């Protein structure tokens, strides 16, 4: 029993080192003097989600931008919905069917005019009228070089969406730069939903053209900048940008997280990966110790293991709520969240390394 308590306490301590903090954009104000910004949005069957983003763009105080939506073989009303907001819709007729997000982004750049390039996923939205200006201000503060990427704050509405809690934590931690040691570790890449760069650095790195066909385009794009000795900055998006992931239902949530999650983990630093494994194990250790103490009917052991279980629930809640507005009560059942994460991760390994394919948005993506 004491061994489990010690191991569980160690996992909590490792968790603190693993996810020390998630810095947020800190701008003194909007960057009114920013150059023209080209906002490029790859979209495939986003008719239900893209209106929220386009509406938030219309509400921005900073207005020196163009919006280019690149339709990626949508079969719904994405094009007509987008045009109703006055955005420019592009389609690359020369590409092969299903060329994917990177090809769409590159096509958008070829038709853009801005000195700065902002790539947004169609399910994101700016949270205030100042958000875009503040984002540009942060990039200016960092010298307007390389890449600034934000992980949007996850907006939760339906109960099943809370199953994404551990995934959100692991995605952020897996970028390597949020441990106690900060940027001493090389970033694993960039966050995909919100990426800002200047045109010169983007083209010098090869941009999305260089990574065309990469399943983890966000990590691959950040890597191209790092290879060119260009900085990659990763921050949390709370207060600037948010998204609601997989509102279509449970199956889409599983497919979404399964899509190359195993591949993405390969970019995580070995030490960070080891800490992550220890932290995940702590949840199962804490519940195992609590069950054992209850079966033994030992009041002291029940008190100690119960306290360990609750501390683990609290830590998991604090970590997850840095990433999204997850309901606090679900963390009382944190072993369920970790079990779901482990199951989907194993399924992702099977899809990636055995079946060599993943499913996403009605498209089967074959892996090389």
Automatic annotation (TrEMBL):
Keyword vocabulary terms for this entry: Carotenoid biosynthesis, Cell membrane, Glycosyltransferase, Membrane, Transferase, Transmembrane, Transmembrane helix
InterPro entries: Glyco_trans_2-like, Nucleotide-diphossugar_trans
Transmembrane feature ranges: 163-181, 271-294, 300-319, 331-350
Compartments reported by the entry: Cell membrane
Coarse class of the protein's main subcellular location: membrane
Biochemical pathway: Carotenoid biosynthesis; staphyloxanthin biosynthesis; staphyloxanthin from farnesyl diphosphate: step 4/5
GO molecular function, one term: glycosyltransferase activity
Domain Glycosyltransferase 2-like: 38-158
Database matches in Pfam families: Glycos_transf_2
PANTHER family hit by this protein: GLYCOSYLTRANSFERASE, GLYCOSYLTRANSFERASE 2-LIKE DOMAIN-CONTAINING PROTEIN
Function (record text): Catalyzes the glycosylation of 4,4'-diaponeurosporenoate, i.e. the esterification of glucose at the C1'' position with the carboxyl group of 4,4'-diaponeurosporenic acid, to form glycosyl-4,4'-diaponeurosporenoate. This is a step in the biosynthesis of staphyloxanthin, an orange pigment present in most staphylococci strains.
Annotated family: Belongs to the glycosyltransferase 2 family. CrtQ subfamily.
Annotated protein name in UniProt: 4,4'-diaponeurosporenoate glycosyltransferase
Species classification: Bacteria, Bacillati, Bacillota, Bacilli, Bacillales
